[in-house]
Amino acid sequence: MSKTQLKKEIASLTKGQLQQLVLEAYTARKEIKEYFDYFLNPDPQALADKFKEAVAKELDRRKRGGISKARISVIKKLIKDFASYQPGFQHEIDFQLFIVAYGMIVEQSLYFPEKLIENLTSFIESALELAERNEVLEGTVGVVTRMTSDADHGTRTYRRYIKSALEHFMSTIHLPKK
């Protein structure tokens, strides 16, 4: 069913029927219950913590021999699901940067294939784009720069990928002249 069809169906319902539909959906689907719970009592930090825990669980997946089994598709879905709650752009930026930073921590004890590192650092550009659209680029660039300069976190390869993503993004934008 398309959104247009759904709108037509909803418009034809009485207030009582609509209330019944919402209550049935609330009890029938965990995802709908979670959405309504957040909608009625928004707590972006608690939501972020829940999603960060899911990301951590995914990034901590491992094969024998200490090789990462993290699936980038799962992490992308978590980002999309988190954003669907509309927690605010700063929470979305922080969440994406958390993924990269947590990856840097885990990568010190697990072997991350280079493709996984490349995919994880793609979230840097996504966070920077969101920061630029919302005029908080300077602070976000500062956070990313600190990530690349701390030799105690992440391998040199990981930090090089992050630095490269930052440089690539900065080369594509036009900063206003002061």
The total count of strands amounts to 2
Helix fraction? over 70%
Structural class, please?
A: mainly alpha
Show unreliable segments: none
**Number of helices, counting only DSSP H or I runs of 4 residues or more:** 9
Shape: globular
The N- to C-terminal Cα distance equals 51 Å
The percent range for strand residues is under 5%
Strand count, sense and closure of the main sheet? 2 strands, antiparallel
In the sheet with the most strands, the strands line up as 1-2
Radius of gyration (CA) equals 20 Å
Secondary-structure element pattern, one letter each: HHHHEEHHHHH
What would you call the quaternary organization? single chain
Whole-number mean pLDDT: 91
Keywords:
9 helices, mainly alpha, two-stranded antiparallel ribbon, 2% strand, 178 residues, globular
